[in-house]
């Protein structure tokens, strides 16, 4: 099963704490606004000709066809990898995957590894598992390095340290770098170029001495056994070429059938993620090449709940995800709460569906709260490069959560309210009686106000409804129902 951040409360409680941090909200608004602007600029170039929508349709179609025949493509991928000199391992869950990586490190006597930014290794808690085995795992992506040195948790798929500003990063470097290797310069400022230089010098000694690297993969080509990593900094290229041993942990949904299938994705991903026409570094490797790069290559094909997600007819489209994070950058909920509130390696709209799909619902309050961490505005669907209908999946998962928790004490009141509503809507005369009673009691329902549009709303209900109205307003009921108005003005019932 995919792991969540231990000790994280359910989303409503975690979000309330995040909303109380004005610095966090400023950091998020600035960062997501910048990324949104860059994405919009490069996507608009292709929207004018209609090519962008064609690319989205192509990407979604390739993913859907691959998932439909995933078993066949995975077998083909294994055969191609083995033929190219790689060793393939199959991991059903996080424990098995971590054990494989630790075993390879121990087998070579390595007590440290360098890592490329990888959502899959974060998902399985690889760094913590290796630490328990006496193996230090050093993150080499700049944002991941900031999170690791700050003993923090990532809060964004693409920019894990998006919740930090550059002044905070400077303090982290000055305070923590010396304990992990080369210290930061004493005269370090918060200029981005100086911070990047400090990170580069700190990481250089780790690159040069590392005997083993761990990566993920953005794509795995079944036809050739080729793994693909795209990045913006070059640290990944260093990890993929310098060490003698390379271990790649790859989710089974990352497979694509042919080399030609990469065409659409290598146009969709950079525009959607970093707002670039192409990634600065696109690295591909196929097994072992004598005398060039790692001479021992292992690939761990990871399930960890993906087949559970594949079995969900509505939710399986989430496995199309190419981890671009475009949905996070447009989500009004994410922008105000940040990624930590989701309690998962996968935050934002995609995390709100992916985590419950992979873990299942009805067993964990924190997981079950995630499908409700959305306003259902649909902005995520509008920007998704592979057309994942996140709002529809959220609604379906909310239904699954309700079904899984039927009969529990905490949901008795909600169930009674739904039965009452069903009784009222079941007959016109009953509904009419409820409408008349609601109109008469409207002024006693709770605290009322007028919204900016001039409409009356109940901002806080009395009694048990108070908790429901903490996060939403209820339109004030009219004193006269539609039925009564129609009867009065037309002389007939509806």
Automatic annotation (TrEMBL):
A GO BP entry: lactate metabolic process
Record domain Lactate utilization protein B C-terminal: where: 398-489
One Pfam family, short name: LUD_dom
Metal-binding recorded as keyword: yes
Domain (LUD): residue spans on this chain: 77-302
A molecular function GO annotation: 4 iron, 4 sulfur cluster binding
Protein name as it appears in the record: DUF3390 domain-containing protein
Protein species of origin: Nocardioides flavescens
